[in-house]
């Protein structure tokens, strides 16, 4: 029988073997990794993967959906033999449970709120990507982790891949000459999410106020609350900030950049169907780093209109990948088609080197906690902040943009061959999906946004400031560490 919010009670600490002895800020450092006690917040979707990775370390579960919490709690007990304590509210969990660390897999818009609360309660944190919903939030999370000396890892698991570590080092040794550009691709099937005539009735099992967290509490007109929040800018960051951040992070890693790009532009839109989403399903972003640019392409439509009959298995590919990274150098290129593999090619297309093999990202985090040594992290929160923020500033350009005729867009970027080439490929893709890009304007061209790479603020567009720091609901604010 499902447990509903109106009568939902958190499981007692005695049931889970947890104590109510209060929080001790540095208790985790004295424990071996195998003995660390972790609570997972957000247990549907990615949270289930966290539980699989953490196994017996996961002694607490927290989710605003009591039906999900009950089901996943039972699943975790059957798989790992752990009868975890269950909480609806992360604040209650942090107050009552004697845990060492928190692993967060909630929707993007609550990542920083929960992570900073955990840090302030003396917990080490693993936070899913993107680590923030906007640039300002990410800055506060980094500042909180430093002030309270916590071990905070971003869930960009490619950073724990030995094969990619070696490939990055090899490229940066100059083996293929100078890097000319990095290209990230996210060609992933994203069918329409539907659109309701009447507001979605939120299931009784969900605490919707807590689910909304810092963001505006709105009526929803999509059929599904869970997952499809990705395609609503109020709570998500589109596919560039969902799947794409992995490829964004890998591309920035190869480039060796440790700031945001000095400027960015977005071209794209939500095209090919009409639904309740407002994030782009088709987009090119150009991050104008001085040494070598980073271009990012998002495509949620299949390779043709015919492909919309089946979606999966019919996506575009470019130079050997659909969801991946291409690092173009003077003497060849490196292809990264997944999280654990990379291949180098010369200018003739002949393979010259191959790397393969990954590692457990959660295990790296637990080892760093055991040693109480942030330098052991493969994806320190600052790295997660930078890669997340690249997605955010690209999204800001889009949201500041307006629909512009295709020919006018092409003319405005004619002096930028790499951006023009990406744009031309995007047009071909849209035409194959029977999107009329040659009639009335359908593509949104964002402005070039200039960025102060130290403060990470926009310097040439006042409208963009509201995307640097999104409004927050009273009582759910992310703490201001800049104040």
TrEMBL record:
Pfam families: GFO_IDH_MocA, GFO_IDH_MocA_C2. The lineage of its organism: Bacteria, Pseudomonadati, Planctomycetota, Planctomycetia, Pirellulales. This is Inositol 2-dehydrogenase. It comes from Botrimarina mediterranea. Residues 198-277 form the Gfo/Idh/MocA-like oxidoreductase bacterial type C-terminal domain. Its EC number is 1.1.1.18. The keyword Oxidoreductase applies. The keyword Oxidoreductase applies. The gene is iolG_2. Residues 36-155 form the Gfo/Idh/MocA-like oxidoreductase N-terminal domain. It is an enzyme of class 1 (oxidoreductase). Keywords: Oxidoreductase. One of its GO terms (molecular function) is nucleotide binding.
